[in-house]
Amino acid sequence: MNLLLPGMYFAADTALHRLDPRVKMGAAMVLMMLPFAARHPLGHFLTVGLVGTAVVLSRAPWRALLGTLRTVFWLGLFMFFFYFFTTPGRPLVALGGVTVTLEGVLAGALQVYRLCLLAVIAALLTYTTSPLQLTHGLEAMLSPLARLGLPVRELGMVLTIALRFVPTFFEEMETLSRAQKARGVDLSSGTPWQRIRNTVPVLVPLFLSAIRRAEELAVAMEARGFRSQPHRTRLYRLALSRANGVAVLIILACGAIGVLVR
Amino acid sequence: MHIQVENLTHIYARGTPAERVALRRVNLEIGPGERVGISGPTGSGKSTLVQHIAGLLVPAGGQVLLDGIPAHARTPEARARRRQVGLAFQFPEAQMFEVTVFREVAFGPRHLGLRADEIAARVHWALEMVGLDPDSFADRVPFALSGGEMRRVALASILALRPRVLILDEPTAGLDPRGRSDLLARLRAWQEETSATLILVSHHLDEMAGLVDRVVLLADGQIVADGPTRRILGDCSRLRSVGLSPPPGVALLEALRAAGWPVRTDVLDIEDIVSEISQCVFNHQDMKTRSFFNC
Lengths: 262, 295
Hints:
heterodimer; A: 262 residues; mainly alpha; 11 helices; 2 strands; B: 295 residues; globular
């Protein structure tokens, strides 16, 4: 593996890694909701405290976490200035007809803080949960819908396969763009139109290999007897241990305090 | 072109848990028109090294100089040097994207900004060089060709750039024996016609033997041997110690030597190997006859 994408799973044996995927996904949802629902600073303190603890527990490298923040950098910047300029309130300075208010600065900062938390929580979930566990957990959470005829297991399989091939495709794209560079194309310069045209030599082979890969995978799965049958057993079953119970209690308590205390 | 690799270090996925050092302080010099083979076990850094020579990667330490100019620099001089280095990746047919063979081979020359007639002449020449008849192949769809033909079209698309340095990364991987020997013969002819530098990356030592004069062995990101083809490929124990299997002919001579036959092991050509063995057998019988009469 030559590159690490923001949000890619990395194997380790920490308390956070061992936690049940269903618990982790539920906790992530609660934590993502809290910075929006909390009315009192206490709720925000609890959220930041919990996320901070999770970061320390996960032993995720700082560089990788900062990398995930980079992915929301432009969105964050846009949101900050959007609130910065559009919130009415006490004027601070006037910049050429646009008035900047204290409320605007605060509102902008609040949005950036929420966005950063969302990014870190999502990254933590994918850092500490393997794609397989993630889909397993999702399947378990969606399983009530199976009664309504939703092919939950098949959807899970599709998701697993898709996640599995994300890094493969990025690597292949890297190789292809280097290979075309070696044939004399400068992919990173030229007019915008030329740059768009220059993606063709990379994208066409990429899609071709993706289609070929999908076909081969389908044949390989069929050859191993894969059928879309409802009864398939699993090597690893999800079971809730005591640690998971404790985690659920902590999250629920924090969620309740965050929402209810005003 | 003069290639100098100085203290080159490359690290993949730096600063992440997946970090891996692919090259450690590699030093190498390749003169104009040299024919060099680079070999080593999987993961030894061969492909990384040649991609650095083509200026496609940025070194973590050290540098690659092409005629004294850093290969990965963003200056016009460096770009001009890079354009003279042609690199065919492993399974180069995976890069094809055009609708006809002609357009596929013309892709590189078109980006060089050549005139239409010059492009056509180069495509024609390159297809002939790889043994495909330009008249019958130019208008065909690349994806409908056989595996061996696709490989040749892909190589032609590199040759059409008229590189002064040609780097081939496992050019014969996945070809049948006839396809292999034919491709190697074409490459030899191309090299003799253009007297360009040829760098061949492969772990098939026997097919390297007839094509290069010098072999560089890599193991674990470092150069462990560098010398004339005969000397490097004749040293079975060193080849085995880095995880490569010696060419079959050399292995045979070595086994004979171990069994007490006084044969040399630094012979690579099949004919030379045969004459070495037969001479040895002949001498042996001669000696037996003589000792019989002496008794």
